[in-house]
Design brief:
This protein has 16 helices and 27 strands. By secondary structure, it is α+β, with helices and mostly antiparallel strands. The protein has four domains: about 150 residues, no CATH class; about 190 residues, no CATH class; about 60 residues, no CATH class; about 150 residues, no CATH class. The strands form six sheets. The chain has a 17-stranded mixed β-sheet. Strands 9-10 form a two-stranded antiparallel sheet. The chain has a two-stranded antiparallel ribbon with strand order 11-12. It is about 20% helix and about 30% strand.
């Protein structure tokens, strides 16, 4: 029924456009089934999209270049996904792969691959994705990212043995399995590359730069490694950009040119092609790889049939009589995107009439160029949002002092907007109340006959911005509502936006009182007695806001952040509603320098693991509780002191932190340390199997239930004999030894 109505409606629109002279917009890069299928086949011919990535979705942007496809594949269980950004020629501009699957290799903090092993693999992958880059990549960066256990590798474009730093490629590869996690291409394929056989030389170029640059000696403010301020003395050039032409010695001091001058075309070295231009690369899967389109990919291609064309979506916006559409908005660009399973057209309308900058006058009506944008449901045609620019100035000399006339009052504009909102979003409008109304001013200028310039004469109200806030049981919901604006000359809607969520709203009956909330808030960290500086400013006749006087005062001040209070518990919340937990401490110790375990202790500290206080006490026997604390935090060490992760048992259930604390302060023996380590690594059941032999001469002294753990720690290289062939299972371990054991455990694949 809806489809039949929409078809009839569109027929009326087309007939109406015949009488109005309106010509439907033709998108330069219109989305078609054939185009999408062609690009998808080409992309899959270049990349390895595993068969298990059966879920498929996409969006499309007509505005960028020759069109951009955003393809997304995912596994059925949602644990992995791949995203690709490719243009209409199947040139791949970006790639990303995400996984949240756990892997045994994740227990190791040491990479399987080092950078020099991954660089050639990275270059091979890049040239497979974009063959035109072969032989034009120069390695510039190769950094190990501890938090991702990955290498970030960067290449710069090289032509004729010379870098072109404005073009680059970056790729991130997993240091454990070598898989590509992300790829980004920044490259200009159309620019002509000049070749200079006899450049002027570095020495001569330096002389030319010296003629155009002055060096300035200055004191500068910086910070040391401890975050403390420091002052240093330095020279810096008065010009940060100076370039010398390698062929004709011409000096350039800008890379940006404006207007219709000839500077851009003059002085550049002549283009000399090093070789004849190669034939344009073919984008068919000519490499022999067989590409298969999955059922989901075919399904998404078929869905294009049910989506309004960009022309139809544009027409629905432009023919809406209640919207403010400037008559000069003749160009439209559209982008198709998907949100929560719904497809939408993002529409941009523009006035592309040329501007005569040689006779430019801001106040002239001839200079103004309109613009508008809208979002439309691609299947139903429903308007989601709309924005249109309006003129904010008028000129007496150009248009006459009676040119601007407001035909609608504030109340009339409110009524017109409410009628439009009720028609567009009837259910949502029932739940909102008008909260604010703002005047939208226009400025009227007159020419100053003495100076030839323009002086502001007066302002007038050119329209009204209206905001409607959502309420539930008389409680405002500021994040939801309807907003927009109406132009006072025509009474047309110039802006409209609905912000709404379908999520269930908590019932307010059991909320704490206002006083209880304040009592909770004022007890959060951040309310302190402090000195603060207060400045006094003045207008000295030339500059406004010049420092006149600065004083210090002692105050109690609220610097509480975040400042959200849970309405039911009184707990402090972050901006996204989660319970706020202060960042972990940064451990620094005064008693570890030069000790055997200094490096292990510092590594733990860098990962946010350690003990409170200025002393680590590496020679002190560690308690069960202290050792469990180090073990409980190791799985989340890559996030350092900013993340307090949960601990899970072998069935995947989260363990209550209270259950991790022992009932006593018992010292940890060597055999108990092995048991705790293997348990933390998930090998408790394996260790209980009656198959292990340790090989130690004092194995009989090891408790039977701990033999498997001791044998595993020996085999994994975590803990060995104490002296000779003796393990000494009942000897208590120290804090320093415990730190070393945790580092060894984290460096082990198990």
């Amino acid at each position: 029924m809806k489809a039949r109505f929409l078809a009839a409606f569109m027929a009326i629109v087309l007939v109406f456009s015949t009488f109005t002279g309106f010509v439907p917009v033709e998108a330069e890069n219109a989305l078609t089934e054939e185009k999408m299928k062609e690009v998808l086949i080409e992309v899959k011919g270049k990349l390895d999209i595993p068969d298990e990535f059966t879920e498929f979705d996409y969006s499309y942007n007509e505005r960028t270049g020759n069109g951009r496809f955003y393809f997304n594949w995912g596994t059925e269980d949602g644990t992995e996904s791949i995203s690709v950004n490719a243009d209409g020629d199947a040139r791949i501009w970006s790639y990303s792969r995400y996984t949240n699957k756990s892997d045994a290799s994740d227990n190791s903090i040491l990479p399987t691959y080092i950078g020099e092993e991954l660089i050639p693999k990275a270059e091979e992958w890049i040239c497979q994705a974009e063959p035109d880059l072969k032989g034009k990549l120069d390695i510039t960066r190769c950094n190990y990212q501890t938090y991702r256990k990955a290498y970030f590798i960067g290449f710069t474009r090289i032509e004729n043995g010379i870098r072109l730093n404005d073009n680059s490629v970056s790729i991130t590869m997993d240091a454990m399995d070598g898989k590509v996690l992300s790829y980004s291409l920044n490259w200009n394929f159309e620019v002509e590359i000049p070749k200079v056989d006899k450049p002027i030389g570095k020495e001569k170029a330096a002389e030319k730069v010296g003629e155009n640059v002055n060096m300035q000696l200055e004191y500068r403010l910086g910070y040391d490694n401890d975050g403390k301020q420091k002052v240093f003395l330095a020279y810096n050039p008065n010009q940060t950009y100076v370039a010398v032409d390698a062929k004709n010695s011409k000096v350039y001091t800008t890379r940006t040119y404006w207007g219709s001058g000839t500077d851009f075309d003059e002085g550049f070295n002549d283009y000399e092609a090093a070789n004849d231009m190669a034939e344009e690369a073919s984008y068919t899967a000519a490499n022999g790889k067989t590409v298969r389109l999955s059922d989901n990919e075919i399904k998404k291609i078929d869905e294009v049939k049910d989506i309004l064309s960009s022309e139809e979506a544009v027409n629905l916006v432009k023919k809406n009589k209640k919207l403010y559409i400037d008559q000069n908005l003749t160009t439209a660009k559209c982008r198709l995107y998907c949100t929560d399973g719904e497809y939408y057209w993002s529409i941009s309308l523009s006035d592309d009439r040329p501007v005569d900058y040689d006779n430019y006058n801001y106040y002239s009506s001839e200079w103004y160029r309109a613009s508008a944008s809208a979002s439309v449901n691609a299947k139903t045609g429903k308007l989601i949002s709309f924005y249109a620019s309006t003129r904010d100035y008028y000129s007496y000399s150009d248009e006459g002092d009676d040119k601007f006339v407001a035909n609608y009052t504030k109340k009339q504009c409110e009524k017109l907007f409410e009628e439009f909102a009720k028609e567009t979003d009837p259910e949502e409008f029932k739940a909102v109340k008008l909260s604010d109304t703002y005047d939208n001013n226009v400025y009227i200028y007159r020419q100053n006959i003495y100076s030839g310039s323009y002086d502001k004469e007066t302002t007038a109200t050119g329209g009204y911005t209206l905001q409607y806030k959502r309420y539930y049981k008389d409680i405002p919901f500021s994040a939801n509502g309807i907003s927009g604006a109406v132009e006072a000359v025509t009474g047309k809607v110039t802006r409209y936006n609905l912000t709404w969520t379908d999520a269930e709203l908590p019932e307010p009956e059991t909320a704490i009182s206002e006083k209880q909330a304040f009592d909770a808030y004022i007890n959060y960290d951040g309310f302190d007695l402090v000195y603060e500086l207060v400045s006094k400013y003045e207008d000295n006749g030339k500059y406004y806001g010049v420092d006149k006087e600065v004083k210090a005062r002692l105050v109690y001040r609220t610097a509480i952040s975040p400042n959200y209070v849970d309405a039911f518990t009184g707990k402090q919340l972050t901006w996204n509603g989660q319970e706020y937990k202060p960042a972990g401490v940064s451990y620094k110790y005064t008693d570890i320098n030069g000790t055997k375990y200094e490096r292990s202790i510092k590594l733990l500290a860098d990962m946010g693991l350690g003990f409170e206080g200025e002393e680590f006490k590496p020679g002190q026997k560690i308690t069960n509780e202290e050792f469990e604390k180090l073990l409980a935090g190791n799985s989340y060490s890559y996030y350092g002191p900013y993340y307090a992760g949960a601990v899970y048992d072998e069935d995947g259930e989260e363990i209550d932190p209270e259950d991790l604390k022992p009932d006593d302060e018992t010292k940890v023996t060597r055999e108990e340390a092995c048991r705790l380590i293997i348990t933390a690594m998930g090998g408790e059941r394996l260790a209980q199997m009656d198959i292990f032999k340790t090989g130690y001469s004092d194995e009989k002294k090891i408790k039977q239930e701990n033999i498997g753990s001791v044998a595993l720690c020996k085999g994994l290289g975590i803990m060995g004999a104490k002296s000779g062939k003796k393990f000494k299972p009942t000897t208590a371990i120290t804090r320093g030894e415990a730190a070393d054991l945790v580092i060894r455990m984290m460096s082990t694949n198990f």
